[in-house]
Amino acid sequence: MQATADGIKKECSWSSWKGQAIDLLYWRNVKQSGAVFGSVLLLLFSLTQFSVVSVGAYLTLAALSASISFRIYKSVLQAVQKTDEGHPFKSYLEVEISLSQDQIGKYADKALLYANTCMKELRRLFLVQDLIDSLKFAVLMWLLTYVGALFNGLTLLILAVVSMFSMPIVYEKKQAQIDQYVGLIRTQVNSVVGKIQAKIPGAKRKEE
Q1: Which UniProt keywords are listed (predicted)?
Q2: Residue 142 class from Cβ within 10 Å (0-12 exposed, 13-18 middle, 19+ buried)?
């Protein structure tokens, strides 16, 4: 019974976090989304100018300075007003943040599943189990060489964050037009792949 209650609690917690992430990406709360978006961009731009160690140290110092200052301020305020409110971060200190053995096992199983799936897929592509899929993978890697020549990893990460916070709201407003264009592109790609497959003897496309 206790295990069922814990499972329901975890599911509710996961649904809550998922809902908050969706609200952030769709800018349901402009101030909150703007703060998160600006903070992430500032962090990434900082990493382009300074080392990871420096950025991490400065962020840690900033967080410690803010928390220590607030702690001293509340202590002085309580002494002046002669109140006994206790530690200002007491509610956060009492929050359970440790992972249970079941959670660690679940996450480890998922990581193992993803790792095995990735290794099997790479083996299939590199050993040319399906010629069409291997050719598409080769074309993707060839395109990435040009992308790598134009952008470094941090620049791509910055572009990914910008897209993450802009594409959902754009898609929500222009869903019909975007779906139409995506359908046209998919049709063209399938047509090209079909022509290539027809010209290569013995190449059979994997059934979906």
Answers
A1: Endoplasmic reticulum, Membrane, Transmembrane, Transmembrane helix
A2: exposed
DSSP string, 5-24: HHHHHHHHHHHHHHHHHHHH
User: Residue 143: enclosing H or E segment and its boundaries?
Assistant: helix 131-150
Q: Choose among 50, 35, 41: nearest CA to 158.
A: 41
Question: Tell me: the pLDDT tens digits for 54-107?
Answer: 888 988 998 999 999 999 998 888 888 887 777 888 888 888 777 778 888 888
The full DSSP string for 50-73 is: S-HHHHHHHHHHHHHHHHHHHHHH
**Of the candidates 62, 23, 19, 17, the residue with the CA atom closest to the CA atom of residue 39:** 62
The position carrying tokens 């019909």 is: 176
Q: 165: exposed, middle or buried (C-beta count within 10 Å: 0-12, 13-18, 19+)?
A: buried
pTM: 0.56
More confident residue, 154 or 62: 62
Q: State the Cα angle at 18 between 30 and 88, rounded to 5°.
A: 70
